[in-house]
Amino acid sequence: MIEIKNISKSFDEAKVLDDITCEVKQGTIFGIVGSNGAGKSTLLRVISGVYDPEAGSIAYNGTELDNKLINTPDILFLSDEIHYEPSETINNLSKRYKLFYNNFSDGKLNVLLEMFNLKRNTRIEKLSKGMKKQAVLSIALACQPEFLFLDETLDGLDPIMRINAKKMIFDEILERQMTVVIASHSLKELEDMCDNLAMLHEGKIVVQGNVDSLKGQLIKIRCAFEGSVAKEDFKDMEIYSIESNGKLYTIVASGDEEKIKAKISGMNPMYIEVLPVSVEETFVIRLQLAGYGSHMDWRSEK
Question: Where are the alpha helices (DSSP H) in the chain?
Fold first, then answer.
């Protein structure tokens, strides 16, 4: 388990992380998503010990992060920027990792490279960006760390290779109870693989929780009215957005679903239907409320 409490981090005058608190349970995948410059990569670097926080604490299985814990082979941070020596091969890079990670498995590396159709003697500089990510992910998993931090690692992979990469990660979690924290710009990329998600915006966590609970935070209702409706007609509901297209309205709100349906039903709609709300929609609305992007007017036409 990783316990992150009240973490803050600044560079010069800019505060990049502001009082971040969250918990990552053992054997789970914790996803971090957010707008550009939200602090995702910085948070990964802080909790893995690459950067020192200015305030707050990080504890691994009850032991607070310090220099001794930073140097343990139980923790591996895989940056979005792949560092390798000129003319270095996959095999040479794996040997450098093997010097530090004493649980390194050559047999596992062979299996993982085969899944990606990569050869040990291939020069890394000859690989595409996506293939480089495949290679370093294979090496990272062969190191068999207890805690793995991935920064945009799945971005740039084609659909088939992305499925293979996810399978590799899931297999390690099932086999060894490995704990994974992964940052990505793509919420869709993380929604189907993470147990819990956190949305960062301007260094703060806007919303976090398990995937199922996040889907249930908002309610979307589509309805149609014979006549016009006014904003005041919805004053008893916590409305986030209303889109209208002629007589058809799509409403996103929070609260008790049955009470909201009863309220709208009392307005004599011609048609009413409750629609599923995705995690992506939940996060987009939360970001809009936090001031990111354009705020949708309640009567905006589509």
Answer: 40-47, 67-70, 90-100, 106-115, 129-142, 159-176, 187-191, 211-215, 257-265, 279-289
